[in-house]
Amino acid sequence: MVSQANIEPARTKEDMEAIQILFRSYADSLNIDLTFQDFQAELSSLPGRYAPPHGELLLARGFDGMAVGCVALRPLGQDGCCEMKRLYVTPAGRGLGLGKRLATEIIGIAVKLKYHEMKLDTLLSMTDALALYAKLGFVPTDPYYNTPLLSATQFLSCRLTAEPSNSDVLS
């Protein structure tokens, strides 16, 4: 178990390799086929649409250097709108609030990048994730892409402002 972790932007080749491993672990944990999201192409082209200046990849590492979590941000085709993707914490990193920290940091980056809305999707079976997103101010929204998992997917949206409305969550 990791006691603490540092969160930094993923920039190096080693960071991208760690992100690939975490993304694969995330996909494996879902027990669904992500082919419809062109997942293999996403992995092979990292940082891809998550690259600055309009996107970001954050990597959490324990003090031992082990990668224990990640989250990604990419622009959506809608003006001023972005998407949070691939929030994942390994079993060794769970129970420390790391998912909340990663989500909060990527929201902060989205605000700095002048996005006014963030969207995401998650499976209805991911109750811990749904609870976290609700605490962060996300609310249900209409689907913003086609998915064969529509009946099992919750689409969420959050208005972004420079001043968080729930400062105890976003601090």
The parts where pLDDT drops under 50 for at least 5 residues are: 166-171
Number of helices: 4
Strand content: 25-35%
Structural class: alpha+beta
Q: Round the mean pLDDT to the nearest integer and report it.
A: 91
Order of helices and strands: EHHEEEHEHEE
β-strand number:
7
The radius of gyration computed from the alpha-carbon positions, rounded to a whole number of angstroms, is: 15 Å
What general outline do the C-alpha atoms trace?
Answer: globular
The end-to-end span amounts to: 24 Å
Overall helicity: 25-40%
Q: Order of strands across the widest beta sheet? A: 1-2-3-4-5-7-6
Question: Main beta sheet, described?
Answer: 7 strands, mixed
Descriptive notes:
The protein has 171 residues and is of the alpha+beta class. 28% of the residues lie in helices and 27% in strands. The chain has a 7-stranded mixed sheet with strand order 1-2-3-4-5-7-6, sandwiched between helices. The chain starts with a strand and ends in a 12-residue tail after the last strand. The C terminus is likely disordered.
Secondary structure topology:
Blueprint: E1 5-9, H1 13-30, H2 39-44, E2 56-62, E3 67-75, E4 81-89, H3 98-112, E5 117-123, H4 127-135, E6 139-140, E7 153-159
Parallel strand pairs: 4-5
Antiparallel strand pairs: 1-2, 2-3, 3-4, 5-7, 6-7
